[in-house]
Amino acid sequence: MLGPTNTGKTHLAIERMCAHSSGAIGFPLRLLAREVYERVCAIKGADKVALITGEERIEPKHARYLLCTVEAMPVSADLAFVGIDEVQLGADRERGHIFTDRMLNARGREETMLLGSATIEPMVRALLPEAEIITRPRFSTLSHSGAKKLSRIPPRSALVAFSAEQVYAVAEMLRRFRGGAAVVMGALSPETRNKQVALYQSGEVDYLVATDAIGMGLNLDIDHVAFAGLSKFDGQRQRRLTTAEMAQIAGRAGRHQRDGTFGTLAGSGSHDAAFTADEIYAIEEHRFAPLTRLYWREPEPDCSSLGSLIADLSRPPTSRALALAPEAIDLAVLKRLAEEPEIAARVRGSAQVTRLWAVCCLPDFRQYGAENHARFVARLWQDLADGTLGSDYIARSIAELDNPAGDIDTLQMRIAAIRSWTYIAQRPDWVLAREEMAARARAAEARLSDALHARLTERFVNRRTAVLMKRLGSDAALLPVTLDGDEVRVDGEPIGHLAGFRFRVDPQARLADRKLLLAAAERHLPELRARRADALLASLADEAAGFELAGTQLCWDGEMIARLGEGRSRLVPRVMLDKTLDGLAGEQQRALEAGLAKWLGSAFAALEPLARIDAASSDPATGPQLRALLIRLVDAGGILERDGAGLDQLQPGQRKLLTRLGVRVGTLDLFVPELLRPAALGAWRSLKAVGGATLPAPVPSMPPVIPLTAKAGPPPGYRSLGKQALRIDMAEKLLRGAHEARMAAGGKGFVLDPARAVSTGLSTASYAGLLRLGGFRAAVPQPLAAGRFGPPRPLLWRWQPLRRALPDRATVPAPAVPGNVFAELLR
After folding, report:
1. Distance, C-alpha 107 to centroid of its chain
2. pLDDT score of 272
């Protein structure tokens, strides 16, 4: 059965095989064998169908239908039907001799069908004169459409390049301007190619960028094929494609009754990216130069010795229609190993020679070349020469490659390496626990293939742009816009998010897309914002609703929705909604203002003691002296230095009222203990920010002592003591303890135990500074007389009324006595 692409040859072969009691079809690609295997399983049942490739074997016990790669075909099996696909590949330099052998020797008991291009017809007549040749016309028309710029390539097109770099470059341009493309290359694993093809076939992307790998039997929904170049490197030199190769690739356009077109990609930079008139005529009319020879190599060489094996594999054919196949990599590896004295000396007898030849036939999946591949085969042979490969060794080798991290090139290299182990694990005479090791290798290859598919999709597919290009048209209002949490989606693709009530375009969006995204979203944002406002109102009573005060800004889920302004009093600010809420209905805005004001009242509940003081400062009965003090105390947030506060002018009754208001009169400060908490200090900081003042942020947990930098002042609620800051209420406790020790001493010098101060984290130098601020002075004891021994005498402290001048020089202690543990207090 000969003819161009899209003639239904493979479909007919499947029907003919299923009409027989048994059969096998050999395909050029594992991908095609897997595709047809699934089709035949649906017809005959999985228990009757086998898949046999170099890397995968699914062989039910009673299988009668075999789908294979050509290399893995059981040539001598007794089957009613045998089919071989793409037999024109007998002219391929690398694999041609295998196709030629199958064409000459693989036979079905009842029917044998050879499928391929019409170019092989002369070779079939010469080698198989008894064969019946049937040709079939193409179902659809294939026509040339000229060169097109990338921006004018129509949807459902395949763009063909002949290097990985060019494939990536074209795919990247399509991602930017058309939303992305699927990528198909020969270097990809079959699983990855399947997933990329599915990405295209599903319509998620409208473009496919591929090498000539798509020319071999991939049935795709392609309307147009654009060539980015017309030359490729064939392993030996850079050459122009033959017209038959061009037609094989261009023939992917148009399926069944739908016509297809082909052309070139304008502006690709390739010097030969233009079809000649003769090439266009040949492709459109399916007229190509016939093949004049096929490659052949002895299919059953003499394995009695290495010399006879190499001689048979190098022997030319006797038929004039056949030519000796160029030295393939398996023969090149065999010759290199035969030159190794250690290997040649150990290979004795036909069984050993046959086994070595089977090892040399391991495909070079990694494309390392004969020299490097020979080293890998030599290491493998060393393990296989005397037995089988251990499970631990294979499992460890697979585990080293089973790592889905890395970029596209890294994953491709790992997949190529794991395919070698997948091939090895399929051999029952090479591997112990074959089923288990083969399953591990296939699972690792599947994981790597999934990771590679994800990297390719991530790099070359911009789903958002693809959706916009497909669905937007001239009216953005036609696009379905939904809100998924905070994320705004257009036709299921995220285009931005609502931060509070403000729409923010995805920062990864290209500049050219921003207008489209905004146009699509703005038509639907009022409705989405109204729903968010309802959700905000419902969550106002929830303490964990995500509200917070950041200065004068009232934030919800990290985004400002209102700000504080001056209100009717110093402690009751006004709530002003952000401009992003202007689009809400008036009733909804008023409800939000009322709800936020209520929430703010609960957030400012920690300032209730300050509110009582503020109310007392407005009461005429309080007295002018106390009212002045209370006003200053409110302005200071409930913390005021005692010095200059006017405390001495208060009457005893006013002092009692001050105490009833919760104000503690300390040695150094007047303060309200309830206001020395993070919530109260944070609320006070927000109130001061309304008036334009900037206060340091409060310390979250309010520890007794915190370190201070040279430039930073103390945060609210703390007093500076050099390199440390001490919380005001703790300073009062330490000073009160010192006064209690003074009273107990009856006015004489007294000893202070610094343990309490040190336990809070206060250094002795900071403790000494606090005592000096409180009016305490230390006297240095006389040192022990000469010849007397014992512990040093402790420092004696005395108290003098506070004077805000510099310390009296007479009270400055002399240098500390060496060995005195309290000497630091004098520094």
Report:
1. 51
2. 59
Count of residues making up the chain: 827
Beta bridge partners of 481: 490
Q: Which letter does DSSP use for residue 721 in this model?
A: E
- Indicate the pairing of strand 260-265 with strand 142-148: parallel
* In contact, 715 and 696? CB cutoff 8 Å: yes
pTM value > 0.85: no
Instruction: Look up the CATH architecture of domain 9-127.
Output: 3-Layer(aba) Sandwich (3.40)
- Closest of 669, 648, 672, 668 to residue 659, by C-alpha: 672
Residues 6+ apart with CB under 8 A from 526: 583
Can you tell me the distance from the alpha carbon of 581 to that of 589, in angstroms, rounded to the nearest whole number? 7
Question: At the topology level of CATH, where does 142-285 sit?
Answer: Rossmann fold (3.40.50)
Cβ proximity of 169 and 399 under 8 Å:
no
Owner of token pair 């028309």: 141
DSSP state of 22: S
Across residues 495-520, what is the average pLDDT?
Answer: 67
The whole-angstrom separation of Cα 67 and Cα 37 is 6
- pLDDT tens per residue, range 23-78: 999 998 887 888 899 999 999 999 999 999 888 889 998 899 999 999 999 888 89
What is d(CA 767, CA 731) in angstroms, rounded to the nearest whole number? 9
Residue 95 has a CB neighbour count (10 Å cut-off) of 16
Q: Which residues contact 579 (CB under 8 A, 6 or more apart)?
A: none
The residue whose two tokens read 């206001």 is 675
- CA distance readout (Å), 636 to 180, 614, 629, 672, 717: 62, 12, 11, 11, 11
287: tokens are 């007229």
Q: Distance of alpha carbon 377 from its chain centroid, rounded?
A: 36
Alpha-carbon distance of 28 to 590, in angstroms, equals 73
With vertex at residue 489, the alpha carbon angle to CA 484 and CA 491, rounded to the nearest 5 degrees, is 125
Distance (Å, whole) CA 423 – CA 418: 9
What is the tens place of the pLDDT at every residue in 553-581?
Answer: 888 777 788 888 888 777 888 888 888 78
Handedness of CA 509, 514, 517, 521 (dihedral sign): positive
56 class by beta-carbon count within 10 Å (0-12 exposed, 13-18 middle, 19+ buried) = buried
Eight-class DSSP state of 606: G
- C-beta separation of 643 from 804 below 8 A: yes
264, 152 Cβ separation under 8 angstroms:
no
Q: Kindly state the tokens that stand for 273.
A: 């990216």
